Amino acid sequence: MEVALGDGRLLIALTGISLVLAGGFAILQSASGHLLPQDSHAIGMDAAALARAANGRLLGFMFHDRVAYGGTLLSIGAGYLWIAGFPLCRREAWAWWALLVSGTIGFLAFLTYLGQGYLDSWHGVATLFLLPVFIVGMRRSYPAKAVWNSQLGAAATLERAGRLLLACCAAGLILAGATIAVFGMTRVFVPSDLRFIGVDAQTLKRISPMLIPVIAHDRAGFGGGLCSMGCLLIYIARYAELNRSLVEIVIVMGLAGFGTAIGVHFMVGYRDFMHLLPAFAGFFLFFAAATLLGVSWRRQLAGSARAAAATDAR
Predict the structure, then answer these.
(1) Burial class (CB in 10 A: 0-12, 13-18, 19+), 60
(2) Which domain holds residue 124?
(3) What was the pLDDT predicted at 312?
């Protein structure tokens, strides 16, 4: 057991893999057009019956929340895998704290179901399985020396700009996530949601008393996921060493998170400009940050190559 658990990175990686699989499942299940069994049981009808009771756009709205949530899980899981494979391997203290803050928020987001009272049994089982894995992994990977080396001070102009843009995007994700989580636990809908669905909240309650709590569960969970992702990115923006793996993981996390969140809106026909504006703003910030970091890394690589060639010539 001691050998299997090792320094905890395997358990952190297992947490990341589980999040990636859960996110992928949420996306594929939504693409199938069916509700989860526990959702159908709570609402009292399956997807086809729900579409007849309301309209097809209601199902599209429910699936768009779940796909966006799944994309967030993909992004966070990929980030955990990267941290386990690179900075945590070097016992960098910031990586451990990034996991602690992000993971704590992510697991606490499960409790947002209390706002509307719908407990997703599959979500609960997954949380109970992952929590001890994550805790043991964090306990065993705790860095003996808390060395913090901020990369902002010595960064070149382009790299510094990329890191600052990434940090701004991360702060936006935290703010957006907190807002969405609060709305998910309380009002659930914004005006553009109800315009798209074409059914008011009272009608939704008459269709099924548990319909809004089921919708709120995914919405609040998505908000918590955004907060978790944003916290992870803030640490990465400030402390992660600029190299190929950093550029790649920023791109992967951006495509997974923003790609699903924006793309699903067009798939279901929810194209309200003001509703999508924050997501597009965040995506362009992310894209600009990744581009600047990539260009800066390429320049560093070219400079190192030139220096090595000059040394060989001498």
Answers:
(1) buried
(2) 2-145+166-305
(3) 66
Task: Pick the range with the lowest mean pLDDT from 64-68, 115-119, 133-137.
Answer: 115-119
Q: What's the pLDDT score for residue 133?
A: 94
100-18-130 Cα angle (round to 5)? 55
Non-local (6+) Cβ contacts of 223 within 8 A are: 109, 112, 176, 177, 178, 179, 180, 181, 182, 183, 184
Per the document, the length of the chain is 314
For the full predicted model, state whether its pTM sits above 0.70. yes
Is 201 a domain residue?
Answer: yes
Average pLDDT over residues 242-262: 94
- Distance from C-alpha of 42 to C-alpha of 249, rounded to nearest angstrom: 38
- CA distance linking residue 74 with residue 167, whole number of Å: 20
Residue 183 lies in a domain: yes
Distances (CA, A) of 309 to 47, 92, 301: 65, 32, 12
7-31 average pLDDT score:
93
- 107, part of any domain: yes
Residue 314 falls inside a structural domain: no
The total number of structural domains in the chain stands at 1
